[in-house]
Each structure stands twice: as C-alpha cells, then as structure tokens.
From TrEMBL:
Protein's name according to its UniProt entry: Protein kinase domain-containing protein
Coiled coil spans: none
Family matches, as SUPFAM superfamilies: Protein kinase-like (PK-like)
Biased composition (Basic residues): 1-10
Segments for region (Disordered): 1-25
Species of origin: Takifugu rubripes
Biased composition (Polar residues): 11-22
A Pfam family the protein falls into: Pkinase
Any one GO molecular-function label of the UniProt entry: protein serine/threonine kinase activity
The Protein kinase domain, residue ranges: 35-310
Any one cellular-component term (Gene Ontology): nucleus
Keywords annotated in UniProt: ATP-binding, Kinase, Nucleotide-binding, Serine/threonine-protein kinase, Transferase
Length: 310
C-alpha cells in the first residue's frame, strides 16, 4: 500500500533530472501533494513538462512546471487566465487540450493537463514520413479538427499565435483516423488585446503581420494552420528555418500585399469541398497527400495571393 503522503519528502524541480531510464528512486518522487513523477517529457526556458501519475485518481497527467522567476511567473498567470477561458468551450468539439488545474510545488507553479500521446512533428519523424507526407486519410481529418479548434477559439476571442506540428498532439497514435488536440497556450492572446510581451511564436509558421508586429487578429492562426497542413501533406516545412531570410521568403511568395491579409475564416474552411466531398476518389487513393493537397491548401488555407510552389 502507498505510505502516507505526509511522510514523503518532496523534491525540488531541479532535483528531477531526465535520464535514459528512470531509476526506482524516481518512482517515489512527488510533485505537489498527490502526483508521482514518471519521467521528463521536455524542457525549455520556462521549466519542464513532466509525465506524472495522479495518486488520487490513478490517471496520467502532463504537468508543466514553471520556474519561480518574475518573468516566468507573469507568463504562468497569463496562461492560466487563457486556460480558464478554454473551459467555456464544448469539450466534445473544441479539439484543444483539457486543463485540469494548477498547483504549487515549493515556489514553482505547476499546470496539470490531460496526458496525450505524441505531437505531430514527432509522429511524422517516427513514421519516417518526413519525405512523403502523411496519407490523405490522415491529413484531412487532422486538418479539419484543427479548423474546428480555431472556430471554437474564435467564439471566445482567443488567438493561439503559435500553431505548428509540435503544438498539435495526437490523442492515440494507434487510432485511425487520428484524433488531435491543440496544446501550449502559453503565448495565446485575447483578440483585440494583444500583448507583444507575452506573445510567443515560431517564425517559420508565423503570419506576415506577426513577423512585422503589426495589427493582429484570429486570421493569423489560419495562416499558421495552412503552413502546418502543408508540412503534413508534403513532409517538409513550407518555409525552412533560416532566421536571416525568413521574412523575405514569406513576402516573396505573394503577388500583392492585399493577398497576404485576405484569408478564409474557419467556418468558410469547414464548408470547403476538401472536407465535404470525397476527395479520395478524385486522387485515386494515392499513398500520400502531396499531389492533391497542395492545390487545395494553396487555394483556401493559405492565401489567395500566394504564388504557385513547385
């Protein structure tokens, strides 16, 4: 039986180190009062993401541990406010990660989420599809679920800002078609009240207005979704990361500035034939989505002003 929790010594976050195999001692390390650390899932400037077992419910959770520093604490407060807003959405149709609660471990702020399987970037790498892209029967439902997520976010005025394969989690990699959820709302913003200090983005997936730090709204997420969908279909990034030329690469793809700012809405996207019509028959059951998806993405997910990519 499990010893009383009060007799356990709680380790600091710095004592929890990532190792190839977790030792038996790690099984006894607690986070807060009721979570046992299983392993480290990732690390960043904010702190760590840990896989934990909730000793009260017996379920696995992903816990984001944010360091006790002034700048990080402010970011944590901002993220918690956004996450509380997400609870207003219908859990059956929102396609965003479920936020459980937040708690403290010593002075660190911990955010608890449902545990999901693998992110899309890792999934593509693991299945060795980074040269051909995912099969169309996977690209279409994944993209549709993400469009639905953006529609839900728009109803409560939230902009994600950092949509990319690494921030989309597959619920269960063995389930077909795959179910996905949008994660990491650390840099998300409220529409009409964008704070550049808490705005977190990844340049190669960012819309022109984000790169220019100009007026931003929910439309910027549709750009990032389009770039992400392209990567799923083709297997490689639309704009490979080269920090000194990324803005030039993006802007050179357009015939006119107006084209960069004219985007389809999530509702309009969901009514597109790509989702409502059986595209599979048109492409004769191709093994991957590269040939058939790119014209579709060019027409509606990215922008009407986009030049043709070879």
């Amino acid at each position: 039986s499990t010893p009383p929790l009060k007799k356990k010594k709680q380790p600091t976050i710095s004592e929890i180190k990532q190792t190839p195999q977790q030792s038996r001692e790690d099984d006894c390390k607690l986070l807060g009062k009721q979570r046992r650390v299983v392993k480290v899932l990732g690390e960043g400037g904010f702190g760590q993401v840990l896989k934990c077992c909730n000793l009260e419910t017996g379920t696995m959770e992903a816990v984001k541990v944010m360091k006790s520093r002034t700048g990080v604490i402010e970011k944590a407060k901002h993220e918690i406010q956004i996450l509380k807003q997400l609870r207003r959405l219908d859990p059956n149709t929102r396609h965003v990660v479920r936020f459980n609660s937040f708690f403290f471990n010593m002075e660190d702020i911990c955010l608890s989420f449902e545990f999901l399987d693998v992110d899309l970037h890792a999934y593509i790498c693991e299945t060795r599809l980074y040269e051909t892209g995912l099969p169309l029967p996977e690209v279409r439902p994944i993209t549709e679920q993400l469009v639905m997520a953006l529609h839900q976010l728009k109803t409560i005025g939230i902009i994600h800002v950092d949509i990319k394969p690494g921030n989309v989690m597959i619920v269960d990699r063995h389930e077909k078609p795959p179910r996905v959820k949008l994660v990491d709302f650390g840099g998300a913003q409220m529409s009409g009240n964008v704070d550049f200090e808490t705005c977190i983005c990844t340049q190669m997936y960012s819309a022109p207005e984000v790169l220019l730090r100009s007026e931003m709204n929910e439309a910027l997420d549709m750009w990032s979704l389009g770039v992400t969908a392209f990567e799923l279909a083709v297997g490689t990034p639309m704009f490979p990361y080269r920090s000194w030329t990324i803005k030039t690469d993006v802007f050179n793809c357009f015939d006119d500035v107006a084209g960069m700012l004219s985007r389809i809405t999530p509702v309009e996207a969901l009514q597109h034939l790509f989702f409502t019509h059986n595209v599979l028959h048109e492409v004769q059951m191709e093994d991957n989505a590269t040939n058939c998806c790119w014209p579709v993405l060019q027409r509606w997910l990215i922008l009407p002003g986009l030049k043709h990519f070879n």
